[in-house]
Design goal:
Two copies of one chain form a homodimer. Chain A has helices at 11-22, 39-54, 99-115, 141-146, 152-157, 166-173, 199-202, 241-257, 295-316, 335-348, 362-366, 393-412; strands at residues 58-61, 67-71, 81-85, 123-127, 188-194, 207-213, 215-224, 228-229, 264-266, 270-273, 279-280, 283-292, 319-328, 331-332, 352-357, 372-377. By secondary structure, chain A is α+β, with helices and mostly antiparallel strands.
Chain lengths: 416, 416
């Protein structure tokens, strides 16, 4: 499929490492359940730490449990080049979401050792705590605290469904570390991740050169009509909250499609009340979200949507309560880091395309402080957050090799 | 508001009787919870039976618990004129749904006694068992068994959520009677009921002359798309089951409105999976129902809907599984009985209009064997199956008076 000249990393070692990590929290259906700060997570972390130490890396843990494994550079005064991802999973997650970035990072370290390469700048491999947010309800927790988006005390106080706090859970598995959980100066951050979408697979690209993360706006909507008997209520007397919601769902889809392939617009959650077969629904609660690479486009969506949804509600005789939950600007990645990913893919002869991340990633927060880029690799059917999540060994190899190229190039560059 | 000449029934006695019955199973919010064949239902039945006996009526109970209270006519060979409704309620029901028809029937008997009128034909006031279907999941049970729509054994074997069978529940309250639960020859059946819809109130009509019951067709629908990440899945790769369902909901509403004020089309129940804010929904299950007074129109709806819904699903890249649950023909009522209701309303000077019943009623089953008509009275905001169900005393009086006129006219008519 491709000329794998210049390949340095050991694809088999990486794959074995992925399969071995996937045994920790393995589910019967071939997925992984490695919820953050659980005993299963501890086993994953312990193995990762042991492997880092065996590779000669110096491991530190910060106050929110982020693990940093450092390989010295030739020049101790240079800022480190960071790379990594997360080892925690969704409750019914897959083997690769997060783990690929961490274990490919470890493979980069092994390869450098094998080849006897000493980079100019130090390297630091990172495992961020609680990327998924499944247990404590707050995704990107470790990178969020590190980058100053969440206060450490606020993160510590979050509880799981059994009332266990993050702080207690960190202590419970021995990963409340002594390092401050705060951004430190770094030269760059690279994160390899599966795409979690179908674009690369559909276009048969091996590498996604991630240029940034989308802007997004999220809403909660409540359509309030009037319950009434489905058999006795004539059309003119209906205030059908579900018909209103349905037309707004169609609006969201049309607004998305009007933006072409970069548009995202989704109603993912919807609850009908009273939800009885022969009652015209009186109330429907639903979520609405839009995403787009351009802040200006999200601003336009945010201006257009409430207005047009309001017209629909009025036509339906239904009251619409629309609450904007948040609006996050786009996070463009660093042009220099993006260029290194592009060059790495080109050097190896991999097919590649630029892509904007639709999902949230630790890299999006890290990018607020550190020049950042991401590398995507395809995943089968675009499926993720699912036990059926699947990638091919050569896809993992390609991603890890591009990570290697970008990291080594960055850490070896001549500073002005 | 109206000239109440010729009024015979005692409106105050009727209202007191309604309020008194409403105390049995009264809820804090002013409604009634008198679930069929419970201890509360027994108290309602016992009071009704006692009042019938006190009024000189001969009470029989059949094997499914239907209660018949007979007043002799002058000619014992004539077939009886039946009238009544049901005393059971929804779990959070109102004071009038069902009770109005039974207690107005009792008021008719009292009035005849007061006036010393002996009709030619015997009269029988009926309380049908389990109209609501809330406890055992099968509405119109007593009239259904009586009319041969449900087998008695099948009805006996139905269980409530605690596993209690209908038979056990009948025995438990002492209402598994000795009479066969089967239709017997009768001259006519009249049922007074609140409209449970907004039409009479909106048009300020005191009486609905019910000409029959709607035809209906019910479906279960499952839209099967593909779960995918809301942030990463571009428009062209989406198989959004909720967008598909939304467009079908809109279709149902448009198909209803294309039939004018007689059309009914409702999606009352809908469940989204996985129902997560940032996941494009992969599966949506929902109910669809259409009703119309004309069988031909329901046939057309039944031909059009699966075809057009299928086109929508195909456009959405979603698989649609559509199952027709049942299709019930319209039940026209008897022209002679309808005419007596019309004449009764006219005689009293009540404002009236013809109306087709949108809800199911015992009368619809009885009509299969016995010439039948119904009388509707308005209810506030068309609200029913709700503790806030409300009517005015003069509305109850008007309905009972028209019932009186129709019953007496029918039972006194000269047979050819």
């Amino acid at each position: 499929m491709t000329a794998q000249t210049n390949q340095r990393i050991d694809g088999k070692r990486l794959w074995d490492s992925l399969m071995s990590m996937a045994e920790i929290g393995a589910t019967p259906k071939g997925g992984v359940r490695r919820l953050t700060l659980t005993e299963v997570d501890r086993r994953g972390r312990d193995r990762f730490r042991a492997e880092c130490e065996a590779a000669g890396l110096a491991v530190r843990v910060d106050a929110i449990g982020n693990i940093f494994a450092r390989r010295p550079g030739r020049d101790p005064n240079r800022l480190p080049v960071l790379f990594g991802s997360h080892l925690d999973s969704q409750p019914s997650g897959g083997k690769y979401d997060g783990a690929l970035g961490v274990l490919a990072g470890l493979e980069v370290m092994h390869t450098l050792n094998d080849l006897g390469i000493v980079t100019e700048a130090p390297l630091e491999l990172v495992n961020w705590t609680d990327e998924e947010g499944s247990r404590f309800g707050h995704s990107l927790m470790g990178s969020g605290v590190w980058s100053g988006v969440f206060a450490l005390d606020k993160a510590y106080a979050l509880t799981d469904v059994e009332g266990v706090t993050v702080r207690t859970a960190l202590d419970g598995i021995g990963y409340r570390g002594g390092e401050p959980a705060a951004a430190f100066p770094a030269d760059a951050y690279f994160e390899l991740h599966i795409e979690q979408g179908p674009i690369l697979e559909r276009e048969a690209k091996q590498i996604g050169i991630v240029t940034g993360a989308q802007a997004m706006v999220w809403y909660d909507a409540v359509a309030i009509g009037q319950d009434s008997h489905a058999g006795t209520t004539p059309p003119s007397a209906r205030k059908d909250a579900l018909v209103c919601a349905a037309r707004i769902i169609d609006l969201v889809d049309r607004m998305m499609r009007a933006r072409g392939e970069d548009g995202r617009g989704t109603v993912g959650q919807l609850l009908v009340s009273p939800n009885s077969r022969n009652v015209v629904p009186g109330e429907v609660r639903f979520s609405v979200e839009f995403r787009h690479p351009s802040d200006a486009e999200v601003d336009r969506l945010d201006a257009q949507f409430p207005r047009e949804a309001g017209f629909i509600a009025r036509d339906c005789g239904v009251k619409l309560e629309l609450t904007q939950l948040f609006k996050i600007p786009a996070q463009p990645f660093d042009p220099g880091c993006i260029q290194l990913v592009r060059e790495g893919a080109a050097k190896l002869g991999y097919t590649a395309r630029e892509i904007v991340s639709g999902a949230g990633h630790d890299a999006v927060y890290v990018a607020r402080h550190v020049p950042t880029a991401m590398i995507f690799t395809p995943c089968k059917d675009g499926l993720s957050h699912n036990e059926a999540e699947s990638i091919e060994p050569e896809e993992a190899t390609a991603g890890a090799q591009v990570l290697f190229e970008a990291v080594v190039a960055r850490a070896s560059r001549v500073l002005a």
